[in-house]
User: Which sequence fits this backbone?
């Protein structure tokens, strides 16, 4: 299992540039990514559980539209799952 420290490092390297260090997108990002913190996302994890986690996993792995890149060539399944757990802690 990937450690929390490694997940934090992956977040800082791969995700924070668009989604912000704390899960809130920066105003300077042209195409606004989804805000990954707050009541809505917490409720999604609470009520959606594994379905929510799997959806986020697939988005990280496969990308979304033309704005969210795919990370399947850069990150292992275990690293992607660690990022999903990281997002859940916001």
Assistant:
């Amino acid at each position: 299992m990937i450690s929390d420290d490694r997940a934090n490092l992956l977040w800082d390297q791969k995700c924070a540039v668009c989604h912000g260090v704390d899960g809130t997108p920066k105003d300077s990002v042209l195409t606004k990514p989804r805000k990954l913190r707050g009541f809505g996302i917490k409720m999604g994890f609470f009520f959606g559980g594994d379905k929510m986690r799997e959806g986020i996993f697939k988005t990280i792995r496969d990308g979304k539209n033309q704005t969210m890149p795919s990370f399947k060539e850069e990150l292992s399944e275990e690293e992607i799952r660690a990022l999903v757990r990281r997002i859940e802690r916001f």
About this structure: The radius of gyration is 12 Å.
